[in-house]
Amino acid sequence: GAGVSQTPSNKVTEKGKYVELRCDPISGHTALYWYRQSLGQGPEFLIYFQGTGAADDSGLPNDRFFAVRPEGSVSTLKIQRTERGDSAVYLCASSPRDTGLNEQFFGPGTRLTVL
Amino acid sequence: EDQVTQSPEALRLQEGESSSLNCSYTVSGLRGLFWYRQDPGKGPEFLFTLYSAGEEKEKERLKATLTKKESFLHITAPKPEDSATYLCAVRSNAGKSTFGDGTTLTVKP
Which of B30, B34, B39, B97 to probe by mutation at the A interface, max A CB count within 10 Å? Predict the structure, then answer.
């Protein structure tokens, strides 16, 4: 079946602009995670959804970052007033449910470049 | 604060030359330790979950082990297609996942 998909694959924007990154999880997966990965580093946790609600948003760096999952499937990560330091690959992952021990299935990521 | 340190940062092996990758961790209550493989331009791909000290898991040429302070990923007789970045992550009882920065493995034919 289809894996996790993310769009766009690449996004170039100017400092101060607003961007939206989309994640389509595997059908039926109730848990969805967002991570940010900078070059040469491991993924950094941002936010985790169980169904429609954000179960843990402790990784969001500041109030410019916001994520939604209104129908418990597709999720959108929104970044306001982008800064050059926001440049990174944004990864989305999903799993059937979150048990704390479950495998996460990752998408290919969206590469965000802020000029 | 949970921490994960992976070593070495990079490892170059000849095809067939076995070796090990290390993942040292400190976590406030370990729920699970995960190993992932990441190829350039792609998202991480799940390999193993280890739950408790003493546990071992194998998959083809890879074997993962876990102690109370570290985990090893042993690679036996690697092939060029094993070249990738290997990531280690811990999940705390509080639910948060923390990744290491990975070991980039290159296997030369």
Answer: B97
CB contact under 8 A, A55 and B95: yes
Residues B86, A36, A87, A112, CA torsion sign:
positive
Average pLDDT over residues B35-49: 96
- Block residue for tokens 């898991």: B57
Q: Is the pLDDT of residue A1 over 70?
A: no
* Domain ranges across chain B: 3-108
Collect all residues of chain B within an 8 Å Cβ-Cβ radius of residue A103.
34, 46, 49
Q: Which CATH class is domain A5-103?
A: mainly beta
- pLDDT digits 0-9 by tens, A30-72: 999 999 999 999 999 999 999 998 888 999 999 999 999 999 9
Q: Are B15 and B75 in contact (CB under 8 A)?
A: no
The fold of the B3-108 domain, in CATH, is Immunoglobulin-like (2.60.40)
For the ranges B43-47, B59-63, B93-97, B103-107, the lowest mean pLDDT is seen at B93-97
> What residue type is B61 in one-letter code?
R
- Minimal Cα–Cα distance from A105 to chain B, Å? 7
Mean pLDDT of all residues in B70-74: 98
- Chain A contact present for B3, CB below 8 A: no
**Chain-chain contact of A58 with B96 (C-beta, under 8 angstroms):** yes
Single-letter residue type at A61? P
